[in-house]
Amino acid sequence: MKTNNHRIHFLLLFLAGAFQFAQSQNIKSTPFPSIDIQLMDSSTVFQTKTIAKDKPVVFLVFNTTCEHCRQEAADLVKNKSRLDKIRLVMMSYENITPIKNFYNRYSLSQIEGLVIGRDYRFAGANYFSYESVPFCAVYSKKHLFLKSFERDFTTDSIFKVLKSNAEL
Predict the structure, then answer these.
(1) pTM for this one?
(2) For the chain, what is the mean pLDDT?
């Protein structure tokens, strides 16, 4: 009886590991994400599929009440001079009002070319399958997936990925 319990336990662990591996591989093998983002004017929709293939693309999923997200926003503004080399797309599932407040509170207007808004269809959550925020996905100029981060990362870690993949 104990042997069968051990076998079942081992099988469940194996399947859980295989599922986790498959999820991590999923983002690498799928095309560039097509996400509609409602911009802060509440009427314009930005489609990620229209992003030009001239710069690396960084998707950043955040929540306005998340402390790590606040730290990442402050770090982005601190490194704003470096961000002109990438296309930065920030999205949240929250309503536009808290996103606007977050944008203003952290002076994100200082980041040239920033796209920020609401993922009103939850397409980012479905596509990326992240478990915590902030979540970051880094793509090459050719829109090929390079790396993702969850929770603890900095602008420096994003740029290290881009440099190691000859994207800068």
Answers:
(1) 0.83
(2) 87
